[in-house]
Amino acid sequence: MSDPRVLILGAPGAGKGTQADRLTAAFDLEHITTGDALRANKDMETEYGTPREFMDAGELVPDPVVNEIVEAAIDDADGFVLDGYPRNESQVEYLEDITELDVVLYLDVAESELIDRLTGRRVCSECGRSYHVKYDPPAKEGVCDECGGELYQRDDDTEETARERIRVYEENTAAVVEHFRETGALVEIDGEQDPESVFEDIEAAVEAHTDAE
Ligand code: AP5
C-alpha cells in the first residue's frame, strides 16, 4: 500500500494550510508547502533576486526557484500533501513530469470571505500554527495555545497585498483549477464550512480516492 499523494488547491486564505496540517497528521504524510519553504528562505539570493521581493508584493516567485524546492521535497517524500504549488500552467507541466497524484482537492471559498480571513490571520513565530482573530482566536491574545510562542501577522497579509495576491491567483492559478477539473481529478470541497466540517469532507475524499484509512 503506497501513501497518498494529495494536492490541495484554493485561493489565498481558502484554508489550504489549515487543512493540510490536519491531513498530514491524520494520514502521516509530509506537508510540502512552497509558501513556508520560501518564507524560511526569503533573503536567499537567486539569479532572479530574493523571494522577499516577489512575496512582499504579492507576486509569484519565478518558476525555476519554486520548481527546484518542490522537486527536492517530493524526492524525499513517500506520501505528501502539496500546498501552494502548482500556481500556473508551467508549474503544472513541471509537476506532472516528476510525480503522479492520487487526489486533487479544491477548497472553494468566495472572494468576499478571503480578505477577512487573510487580514485576520495570526501565525505562531515558534511552531507556525495559524490562528484567526475572529474565527480561531488563541486563549490569550498574541500567544500560541500550543507552544506559548508569540503570534505575528505575515508581511503579505495586509489588505493591499492580500488583494494583489487574489488578483494574481485569478490571473494565473484559476487555470490550474480548470486543468484538473478537465482531467476529472478535481474534488471540490465547500471551504466555507467550519474547519472541522471541511476536514470531514476532505478525509472522505482522500479515503475514497486512495486505499488510505
Ligand atoms: P502561500 O504561503 O502559499 O500563501 P497562499 O497560497 O496565498 O495561501 P495562504 O497561506 O495565505 O492561505 P491558506 O489557503 O493556506 O489559508 P490558511 O489555512 O492559512 O504563498 C505566499 C507567497 O509565496 C505567494 O504570494 C508567492 O509570492 C510565493 N509562492 C508560494 N508558492 C509559490 C509558487 N508555487 N510559485 C510562485 N510563488 C509562490 O487560512 C487563512 C486564515 O483563515 C487563517 O487565519 C485560518 O485560521 C482561517 N481559516 C481557515 N479555514 C477556515 C474556515 N473553514 N473558516 C474560517 N476561518 C478559516
TrEMBL record:
Pathway: Purine metabolism; AMP biosynthesis via salvage pathway; AMP from ADP: step 1/1. Zn(2+) binds at C124, C127, C144, C147. It comes from the Archaea. Transmembrane segments: none annotated. Catalyzes the reversible transfer of the terminal phosphate group between ATP and AMP. Plays an important role in cellular energy homeostasis and in adenine nucleotide metabolism. Monomer. AMP binds at T34, R39, E59, L60, V61, G84, Y85, P86, R87, Q91, R154, R165. GO terms for molecular function: AMP kinase activity; ATP binding; zinc ion binding. Belongs to the adenylate kinase family. Residues 121-156 form the Adenylate kinase active site lid domain. InterPro entries: Adenyl_kin_sub (IPR006259), Adenylat/UMP-CMP_kin (IPR000850), Adenylat_kinase_CS (IPR033690), Adenylate_kinase_lid-dom (IPR007862), P-loop_NTPase (IPR027417). Consists of three domains, a large central CORE domain and two small peripheral domains, NMPbind and LID, which undergo movements during catalysis. The LID domain closes over the site of phosphoryl transfer upon ATP binding. Assembling and dissambling the active center during each catalytic cycle provides an effective means to prevent ATP hydrolysis. Some bacteria have evolved a zinc-coordinating structure that stabilizes the LID domain. It is found in: Cytoplasm. The gene is adk. The keyword Chaperone does not apply. Pfam families: ADK, ADK_lid. Its main location: cytoplasm. PANTHER family: NUCLEOTIDE KINASE (PTHR23359). Keywords: ATP-binding, Cytoplasm, Kinase, Metal-binding, Nucleotide biosynthesis, Nucleotide-binding, Transferase, Zinc. ATP binds at G13, A14, G15, K16, G17, T18, R121, S130, Y131, Q193. Residues 120-157 are annotated as: LID. This is Adenylate kinase. GO terms for biological process: AMP salvage. GO terms for cellular component: cytoplasm.
